[in-house]
Amino acid sequence: MKMRFGNGSRTAQHFVRVWSTNFSRCLLVAAVLASALALTQTFGAKGQNALPTSGVTIVLPPRVMAGHPGTLAVLGADGKLVSGVNVDVGNGQIVTTDRTGRALFDVPTTGDYVLARSSNASAVALVDPAVAASEPSAAVLPPVVSIHDRFWICAASLRGDADSNEVKINGRLALVMAASPICLVALPPLDAKPGPAALSIAAPGVQLSAATVLVSLEFEPPKPALKPNEKGQLELTVQGSDWKLRVAVQNETPDVLKFVRGDLQEITTSGRSPNVAAIQVQAITSGNFSFEARLVQNPDPSSAERYLRAAAALAPNDLRREISKLASRLARHPRDAEKVRIELNRLTPVAGADDFRTLLDAARAAL
What we know:
Oligomer: single chain
Radius of gyration: 20 Å
Shape: globular
CATH class of the domain at 217-295: Mainly Beta
């Protein structure tokens, strides 16, 4: 979820305001935001900058199956699904997103991961061995999901073609963005409300049910608006749950607004009503500012270990041994996930913008 502040008004808007159970009418809906909430507040600046239009984000299912098809999606900088984008998925395979912003690709029969690249963006998914079709298993998904963000669902006997899977939340159709025979990535419907949610997942021959909790992350900017060099705080309120939640926040405009405790930080909500947290900030200059906020899910040490072992093979010589040791530590002591994540945060500034960095970021995200 991306937050943007400017012009002293507070808005919440979706770039697409229509939804349809008929995907042929979903071509406009395919412009759905993964980061649909925008808030605005300015430090003495006039006018409002348009959202950036350069750069893309590639969305893959967290796990794919060797030798089977999968579906990926591409989001623009404004959060909309984008058609006509070429994505290199390795092994000489380049696919182009269709008018829904998605593309089918073939997962290779060998290798531990698929790495998709386009322009200055990349994403990675773990490759599981091909298995014969089995009885549908229970669906697994995060216990808490943001109504404004995509989320994953994993289960047996799904389909790699996203259109062959249907996900409903409280009876309302969700958008399946990326897919494989073992995992999906979906986006809640635009009219989703915070609170307990019942899910149904359907594919040919498969009908599953699951439950989660939908939450909305609402931020309030400093009041009154800060002047340059003044300090204040951004206040986060969670609607839909009184659980303690971890939220990762990345400052995208530190030259306008500084996060006092670091421009990449994790905050924990109070876990009571109201369910709140705060970020200490300092205004640097007049202008608009933006940041990204995402729920931090429960750690997945097994996936993180696999990403780290893949990263070790690509690591610079002076880091290879250290990365391998972190992978082995997760294998032996999964409960050390938090300590390993701290070590990865320390290593991240050292890594460059290449495949090694992509794998390292994926390992950190899994923790």
